[in-house]
Each structure stands twice: as structure tokens, then as C-alpha cells.
Amino acid sequence: MTSPRRTLLKVVILGDSGVGKTSLMNQFVNHRFSREYKATIGADFLTKELEVDGEAITLQLWDTAGQERFQSLGVAFYRGADCCIVVYDVNNAKSFESVENWRSEFLEQTSSLNNNAFPFVILGNQIDKDPSKRTVPLNHALSYCKNQGGNLTHFETSAKDGTNVSIAFESIARSALENSSHEDYASDLTGSISLLNNTNESGSCAC
Amino acid sequence: MHRDEIKKAQSEVKFALLNSDRETLSCIGQTGHGFLIKSLRKPAWFQLCGLTLHTPPARETALLQGDSYADKHQVEMDMNRSYFHSKTHPFRLRKQRSRLSKVFDIIFKTHPALCYYQGLHDIAQVLLLTLSFSHALRLLEHLIFFRLRDFLLPSLEPTLHQLELMMHIIKLRDPELSSELVKLGVQNYFALSWLITWFSHDIEDFGAICRLFDFFIATHPLTVVYACAQLVLDNSLELKHMIRNGSGADNVYTFLCKLPQQLDVETLIRHTCSLCRTLPFPKLDLDSCSISKYSCLRTKGESWELANNSDGPMLFRMHCEDLKASKSITKDKYNSLLPLDLRVSGRSMVAAITVIGIGIVASQYVTSQNPS
Fold first, then answer.
1. pLDDT at B161 over 80
2. Residues B320 and B173 in one domain
3. Structural domains in chain B (count)
4. Residues B146 and B161 in one domain
5. How far is B157 from chain A (nearest CA, A)?
6. Cβ within 8 Å, pair A17-B77
7. Which positions 8-47 of A are in contact with B (Cβ < 8 Å)?
8. Which chain A residues are closer than 8 Å to B73 by Cβ?
9. Residue ranges making up the domain that contains B316
10. Average pLDDT, chain B
11. If you measure CA to CA, which chain A residue comes closest to B191?
């Protein structure tokens, strides 16, 4: 028996240093959280096989360095991405302000033909921390996503306790799948994609 | 190592230290067993760097002046993710982290032109775990100006040139592997953390990290680049096999990233030494990889002569200036490619209009003179 053909989808994870990019990726891929992740230098990826709407896919998740100094390296890994995740820390306003920089830098470097259609998933991480420490209110983030007008989905997550992590990544996988099939539409018009069912979970929104 | 062997090896180091025999110390760091224990590492590292252990009291006053420095936020972030391999008690962990933060406070306030990079904290940790605070500070400052300064420039370019040099060395030793990697489009960034942290970011075993530091401190700054290349060359067969079997650039890249995790340090050191013999430093064409004339890779002499043979802080400043100048040259080049109407300033616009105006008047004058 031959295994069904798997679709390989590439996803890049961007965001300021220390917001939890590596932790989120490891929580999703290995269901593990550790306080002992070192800072990421350069970039590396993990893969995860999953099924989305009956289609077998392999997600290749590229974790990148957050220090601005290394931003130019990321460009080499942006190529061919089907979805881009931008992470911020809900307890760090500066990391939220950087979301737009990361997004525009990504769009500029990939010079996507249709910038508005390219899927971004914005993740507000570290919601497990004491609510009194929060500096980025959910509404603030939601209105940012709405005002951008592009294909932006937002979730609030905790890489530590796993809140919303699998939901967010499922949505990421769908967005990536949808994007890759748009790109391939000329060569492959068979089979329709079951579109994202955007039920809003707590703290999540498809804007 | 057997107990007796360790004893013998230690006395060998002690003997060389007593005689201030830096040649022998350098040999022990390269082809020998390294400096084995903290109490020997400290004097050996200092002698090999041409430094005296009687350092004047550290300039902690710098800590009191000014409240912050440019990369403070980044340093704090990395500090909170440091010392994991030492498995220490939370109280001790806090203490170690605050020492790390203090060391950077002093360095970056004293030398505000230096730009912190993620990974420098890995190197600083190794020094702080091996030496007293003031000695770690002194040695880190020395390493920064004589071995790591290319990585602390405002631009990442000089670091990337060192990675290109690594690929160049691979090409000279194994052209087939090199062309396979290039053909596949594998990025050379897999070795970034090896290069800028002397492998301390990627190796878990602290003893192995210290052994590598013994090696690098005992040798020329270029040795680190050679060691990075050697690690790839040591895995040439497996890499070629992967590529032949259809592994894509991504899989090859991630395989390369993980090489230090299964590294036998003594083998790497031995092989790197033999690579340095077959491909001596003077034979290497640093220009072809755009290594700056101010780069620490260009310093001549033994490890303990680096500070005498070059003025690290001044070369760093000149390299900064050079980068600034080349950036503006690139800008000018770019400017000359733009259409005229996008680049002329107000004054030259006036001049251009005048010239065009004169041209029109002149052509009318010529026409009126020659009505036929």
C-alpha cells in the first residue's frame, strides 16, 4: 500500500527576541515546554506531520533569531514560505509594536505578488503570566489586525501551558495550505479546498 | 584519561606555566590534552593571551556612570536564558546571571561603539564559569578586541565574510562537496553560531567547550574558521550520501546545524591542526572573501603577540569607519543608477534647467541664423 502524497508547507516564525518563538514551535511539535531554551542564533526548522481537512501535510516550521542584527539572515529562509507567523509577548508592548516591522520586512523581502492575500498569523504569547503584567490588551491587537486589511489571523497563546497552541497551528496549516494551492492553481485546478471555518475561540480572531 | 596520565598531564602544564613557556603551552592547547582544570586554565589562558594575572582592579566605576547602553535590553533577554547547562540552584543561577549582566554593563559602557550580538553571552558564560569576575572581564575584553571584534561591528557583513571564508576552505579541501552544497543552495548560516560562540552555543558538555577554548586561545584567530570548515569536511561522506539520495537543501542544512551535538572534540582539534598544516594561513586568499584589512583574522604572530602586534580598539574603529564609507559609496552607486529626475537636488535642478534653457535659446539662435 502506498502512503498518500503529503504536501510540504513552509512556515516562518518571526518576532522580537524572547517572545517565545522557539517555545511555541516546540509546544506544538513535541508537546513540551521548557524554560531552558537558549536564544536562537541563525535559523533552524522542525517538521510536523498532520492532517487538515483530509489532506496529509508536512509543516516545516522555520524558527529564526529575534535580534535585529540577524534580521537580514532570515531573508534567505523567507523564500517559498506559505505562511508567516509573527509572535509578540502580550506583556511587552515593544514586541507588539515590532509586529508591523516584521510583517512589512517579510513582504518587502519576498515581494509577494499579492501582499494582501499572503497569510499572516499573529500570535500574542505568554498569556499564562500574571494578568497585571499585560501591556497589550486583546482589543488593541484585534484592531491592529483589522486595520491592516490583509490576510491576518490573530490568536493569543501560551507556549507554557499550551493554551490555543494547537488551534493556532491548525489555522496556520490551513492558511498555508490555502496559500500554496492559490499559487499552484494554474497547474492544479482539481479538488477544492475546504475553506477555513473561522470559529472564534477565546482570544482568537480571523480579521 | 587514566589517573596517572591526568597527573602527568597536569604537571606538564604546571611546568610550562612556571617557566612561562608559552610555546609549550600553545602545543598543549593544540596537540596535547588542553589545560584540564580551572586552576590551570586561568594562568594558561592569561599567559597565552599575553596578559598578566595581576590585573589592576576592574573599572567597576564605569558601572556607576550612565544608566544604560544601546543593547541593554537584548543583553537582559539573553541573560534570562543563560547558564542552563550548569544545572545550578536557582539562587546561584540568579547570582551568575547578575554577574553576566554586570560584565556586559562594564564592557558596553566603557566601549559604547561595540555592538552586542546574541552569542557573546555564551562566550562570557564560559569565562565567568572558569575565572573570577575581574579575570573574566579582563579576558573577555581581550578576546573581543583581538579575536571577536569582527562580530561586534554595526554590520553583520564582516561576520558573513568569515562564513564565506569557511566555505572557501571547504572548497579548497573538498571541491566536490563544496560544489554539491553550492548547487543545492545550502546556506552557510548553519555555522554562524559555531563561529561567533566558538561552538559554546551548540555543545552541551562544558568540559568539551573548555577544551575547545584551550585550543582557540592557544592558536591564531583563523583557527576557529578552520575548525568550522573541518567539522563539515569530517562529515563529507555522509553529506554526499545524503545529497545523492535526494535530500533537499533544507534537510542538509538542518543536518549541518546539528553536527556539534555529536562532536568528538579531540578528533576535531586533531583534524583542524592537520588542516592548518596542509593549508597554511599565508596561503589563504583572504581578499577573495572580502576579509577587511582591519579584520582580526589578518593579525600576524602567535596568540600571545596579538595585543603587541596590533591595536585592536583602533582597528575596530577604523573598520567601523570603513563600513560607513563603503555604505555611502554603495548609496552613491545606487544613486547613479536612478533616473535623473529622481536624484537631482534642488540646486542641480536649477543648473539643469539653466543649461536646457540656454540650449533652447542657442538652438533658436542657430535656426534664425540659418533660415534655410
1. yes
2. yes
3. 3
4. no
5. 10
6. yes
7. 17-18, 36-39, 41-45
8. 94
9. 154-369
10. 88
11. A42
Helix axes B120-130, B38-48, angle to 10 degrees: 120
Rounded Cα–Cα distance for residues A190 and A192 (Å): 7
Do β-strands A83-89 and A43-52 pair in parallel, antiparallel, or remain unpaired?
A: unpaired
Q: Per CB distance under 8 Å, which residues of B are interface residues toward A?
A: 73-74, 77-78, 80-82, 84, 115, 117-119, 121-122, 156, 187, 189-190, 192-193, 196-197, 201, 250, 253-254, 257
Residue A52 parent element (H or E): strand A43-52
Distance from CA of B189 to the nearest CA of A (A): 6
A38 chain-B contacts, CB cut-off 8 A: 81-82, 84, 122, 201
Q: Taking CB atoms and an 8 Å limit, are A45 and B254 in contact across chains?
A: yes
Q: Test A41 with B78 for CB contact under 8 angstroms.
A: no
Q: Tell me what pLDDT residue B102 has.
A: 94
Of the partner residues A17, A42, A67, the one whose CB lies closest to the CB of residue B190: A42
Helix H, strand E, coil C: the string for chain B is: CCHHHHHHHHHHHHHHHHCCCHHHHHHHHHCCCCCCCHHHHHHHHHHHCCCCCCCCCCCCHHHHCCCCCCCHHHHHHHHCCCCHHHCCCHHHHHHHHHHHHHHHHHHHHHCCCCCCCCCHHHHHHHHHHHCCHHHHHHHHHHHHHHHHHHHHCCCCHHHHHHHHHHHHHHHHHCHHHHHHHHHHCCCHHHHHHHHHHCCCCCCCCHHHHHHHHHHHHCCCCHHHHHHHHHHHHCCHHHHHHHHHCCCCHHHHHHHHHCHHHHCCHHHHHHHHHHHHHHCCHHHCCCHHHCCCCCCHHHCCCCHHHHHHHCCHHHHHHHHHHHHHHHHHHHHHHHHHHCCHHHHCCHHHHHHHHHHHHHHHHHHHHHHHHCCC
Do the chains contact at B118 and A60, CB–CB below 8 Å?
A: no
CA–CA distance, B195 with B191 (Å, rounded to integer): 6
Task: Domains for chain A: give ranges and CATH numbers.
Answer: 7-181 (3.40.50.300)
pLDDT digits (tens, 9 = 90+) for B278-306: 999 999 999 999 999 999 999 999 999 99
B163, B124: one domain: no
For residue B330, what pLDDT is reported? 61
Minimal C-alpha gap between B243 and chain A (Å): 18
Cell 498569523: give the residue. A121
* CB-based contact B298:B245 (threshold 8 Å): no
Q: Quick one: average pLDDT of A57-66?
A: 94
Domain assignment of residue B54, yes or no: no
Cβ–Cβ gap B192/A69 under 8 Å: no
Of B118, B201, B250, the CB nearest to A60: B250
- B55 domain residue, yes or no: no
Per-residue pLDDT at A116: 81
Q: How confident is the model at residue B58 (pLDDT cuts 50, 70, 90)?
A: low
Mean pLDDT of A57-80: 91
